[in-house]
Amino acid sequence: MSLDDIRDAARGLPGVAVRTDLVPVPALTESAGVPVYLKLENQQPTGAFKLRGAWTFVRKLRGEARAAGVITYSSGNHGQAVAYAARRVEARAVVVMPETAPALKVDRVRGLGGEVVFAGTTSEDRYKHAMELAEREGLTVIPPYEHHHIIAGQGTVGLEIVEDLPDVAHVTVPVGGGGLIAGITTAVKSLKPDTRITGVEPEGAPALGRALEAGRPVRLERTASIADGLLPLSVGTLTFEHVRGAVDAVAVSDDSIAEAAVWLHREQGVLAEPSGAATTAALRSGVLRPSGPTVLVVSGGNVEPSRIAELASR
Known about the structure:
Helix content is 47%, strand content 14%.
């Protein structure tokens, strides 16, 4: 997967995914001592960056594969994206979700025409059940992150950042399975090799940090966090190949994530789910120390305002 693949993905997005805003944040700029911007992926029609990769995959399906339908395994945002993309081409979409998935995300998958099937509580539970259904029903599997079409689609975020902020020095990215940071790293490092890329993950799910230490993906025994979109037990093998030696990682506490989500909503008018608030949490808590114009990717906003009120009570 290359910069050319990301540019091809970008050409396919108009009319489906939007070019999201890059917004300066004076309050964060003042505290950090460098210009700070939010890349607002919560502005996507499905509320998160996942639409970029899902549509890139779906638009490349042809003939019998498209007619038979698709299936994915997701805690929510990728499932919504796949359901949305499949509906655009009138294809069937099955989404295997955890039994603990937020009701908001389940309802939105169904509202977009997706067929929801529940399986366990871990990413492995969802994966195994999805594979069984795919084989039984002849469905094409659209993985959340471990595919070059997905990575290329997510990489369009990085392409937009460099185009909109040519002097960007630091990009911070929430990390679950690694599709977003893999795509952004490929795009940004191809255009501006000296730009620093930092992955931000919950303290209870440091999959990227462990992988960077070991030099390979490492399976965690368990993960836990209020950031439900950042809980895979391991980063992907393919995604890790795109970031190996090119990124660093920091971990943030759930209290920091909650504080950041509340601050974004109350002070900036940005509705960010805990996963999307992780980068802001890294900066506000002090674990992230930028040295030049910095972009905080807000990866998604699929959360009810009432949930923000709950987070405020922490």
